Structure formats: C-alpha cells, structure tokens
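Sorry to interrupt, but I need a hand with the structure work. Please put the record directly below this note.
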Amino acid sequence: MTNPQESLFNRLHEKYGDHYDDSESRNYRIDLYLSDIAKLIREQVPPDGAVLEIASGTGVNLSILKDLVGRQNSIEWWGNDISTEMQAAFVRNHGSQFLVSGDMTQQSVNVPRLFNLILIIGGVHHMTNDLDGLFRNIKRFITPAGLLVFVEPNALFLNSIRKLWYRFDSRFDSINESAINPFAIHEMYGSSFKSERITFFGGPGFFLVQNSMIFGIPKIIKRLYSKSLTQFDLWYSRYQFRRGLPAFFTVWKNQQAESTTRWNNITIE
C-alpha cells in the first residue's frame, strides 16, 4: 500500500519545486537558518564526513549548503525522500550513489555508512504518526557525537488554527501531519541527545516567501515583497517570542558512546 505522504508529494512535486526551489525561497532559507547550518557543518563535520538530509526533496538545500560550506570540501552529501518523483529529481542533482530511498520511519531502510550530521527541514512534522520509527533510525545512522538538526513549524504558535487549516486543505495530510513542540519532542525522543540550541524564527515571510505555494501566490508578485519580508523576519526573530514565531531551528548532539553505537541492520557496500 502506498504511503499517504508518498502519494501527496508525488502529486505536488512540480508545484513544490517551483515555489520552494526559486531564488526568493532559497534566499529566505539562507538568511533565516541555512547559513547557521553551514557554519555548524564547517565546524563540526570532518572533511571526510557525511551529511544526510531526511525528506530532502529535490536536494536543493544540500546544493545550497555545498556552496555555503565550500565545494572543495570532500564531505559526502546524502539525501532521502519517500516520494519517487522527488527521488528522481535528487538523483539528477546529486547522483544515485548518494540517495537513501525508502520510508525513514521503517526499519527496512539501510545506509552504507554513519552520518556526522543528520538534517531534517520541514520533514518531522510529516511523520508524526511514526516518530518512534523515525528516531529509531536516526539513532542507528548517526555517529557518536554527531549532530541532529531539524527545522519545523512551531506547535506553540497558533496551533489550533493550523490544525483546522491542515484538515480542510487537500495539500496537507491532516492524519500524518502536525506542527512540532520543540520541548515536548526532546522530552520524548532526546534521552540520548543533548539539546544544544533552539532558535525560534519567522513572521509573514515564513508564510508568504518560504511557503508561497500554500497561498497560491504568483511568483511575479512574490518577487516584489520577498526581500522586505525576509528582512522583517530577521528583525522580528531577534525577540524569540516562542509563541509568536511560526517555526524553530534546533540542534541536538548525540551523547551515545562510541562503544555502544549500534551498527546492526546497516548494510555496508
């Protein structure tokens, strides 16, 4: 049986890529959080290390991070997505050797190595019906002292309105999707991770620039306001109103000792 999320993103992949991969959305992400993630990678991932992005879509975020970190670096950039259409786009951009296919909530997923940094941008909230499976795999695939970084919609921000919206908009899978409370999820799944950072961010630009597809905003209109709204969100995010900012960026560090790192079920190729 096809996973509802796979069906959803196979159906939306062209519109999704058209809105999320354009220069305005890219620049928003760079200014609000990708530059910070690139800094973490430069500082924490060794030159022969590897980054895995779960729910990577076309791989556009990895392409941006490669440029920000420096393409001369020999870090390996891996992606995973449940959508076969997104997987095909990722292979065109990054090569099939760096694709981890399959549903990351399932035990059947295997990888050829461990990862120094695992990144999820807007993916955890699509897997809320099986977070146990997701975090079980993350623990399988992350190195000792590796970093888990995720960027998600903030459940502390107007969540009752968001739930109603998800329920009546066909572009959402209301059964499997839900915003994330960064404190609650660490309490549930962070026992072997140290929470090193939680940064709340966003404003009108989060909706009208990064998520313009949801509102059906023509790209020619989006170009008129994207720079000003991006700058506004940068200013507004300085105040860290956890209930007044629609998204968050968090960093967890694996506390699992090397001697107990679990290599079982990892296929070495």
Remarks:
- The two ends are 29 Å apart (CA to CA).
